[in-house]
UniProtKB/TrEMBL annotation:
Residue span of region Disordered: 156-179
Organism encoding this protein: Sphingomonas chungangi
InterPro entries for this protein: 2Fe-2S-bd, 2Fe-2S-bd_dom_sf, 2Fe-2S_ferredoxin-like_sf, 2Fe-2S_ferredoxin-type, 2Fe2S_fd_BS, Beta-grasp_dom_sf, Diverse_Oxidoreductases
Keyword Iron-sulfur: yes
Gene3D superfamilies: 3.10.20.30, [2Fe-2S]-binding domain
Domain of life (superkingdom): Bacteria
Entry keyword Cell inner membrane: no
Molecular-function annotations in GO: 2 iron, 2 sulfur cluster binding; metal ion binding; oxidoreductase activity
Keywords associated with the record: 2Fe-2S, Iron, Iron-sulfur, Metal-binding, Oxidoreductase
Residue ranges of every copy of the 2Fe-2S ferredoxin-type domain listed in the record: 1-76
Descriptive protein name: (2Fe-2S)-binding protein
UniProt xrefs under Pfam families: Fer2 (PF00111), Fer2_2 (PF01799)
Length: 179
């Protein structure tokens, strides 16, 4: 069994210790914003925060996440108001959307560590693959999110429609083993 905190909720996974964290999040906790892409850590669709750092969850065995704090896209911002999310919408840096959660998580971790990244630093930190070709808009979006996070700009992009973020980040007691 592996005990960790996912989106602020204590969770105990009863899985084989080598099960990738990605599958614990998606299949057990029903947090499907974290995407399965390549399974080799190359594409970044599975990026989550582990203790505040961007991690490719397809490469992290659940047992190695023991005692950590994991944040998925569902809990990055309950109201979808995180500057990276808002800037991605405002800059049109979202196409099909499959890679978007991983990119947002990688960008949020970058801005947390470096509130004023250069274009080169963004390129080095955001190695996620996007087949839709949003890279030029992505760099503009991350620069805009950085300005917003520093209080230099306000982004007026409405959150996308969909399910209530509080519902998306809920724990599923029957599957996690926690009441």
């Amino acid at each position: 069994m592996t005990d960790l905190t996912v989106n602020g909720q204590p969770v105990r996974y009863r899985l084989a210790p080598d099960t990738p964290l990605l599958f614990a999040l998606r299949d057990v906790s029903n947090l499907t914003g974290t995407k399965y892409g390549c399974g080799t850590g190359e594409c970044g669709a599975c990026t989550v925060h582990v203790d505040g750092k961007a991690v490719r969850s397809c490469l992290l065995p659940t047992a190695h996440a023991e005692g950590t704090f994991v944040t998925t896209i569902e809990a990055l911002s309950r109201d979808r108001g995180h500057p990276v999310q808002q800037a991605m919408v405002a800059e049109g840096a979202i196409q099909c959307g499959f890679c978007t959660p991983g990119i947002v998580m990688a960008a949020a971790a970058l801005l947390s560590a470096n509130p004023s990244p250069s274009d080169a630093e963004i390129g080095a930190a955001i190695t996620n693959l996007c087949r839709c070709g949003v890279q030029p808009r992505l760099i503009r979006a991350i620069q805009r999110a950085a300005r917003a996070a520093r209080g230099e700009e306000t982004i007026l992009a409405a959150p996308p429609p969909g399910i209530d973020p509080a519902d998306a980040a809920r724990a599923v007691p029957a599957l996690t083993g926690k009441p």
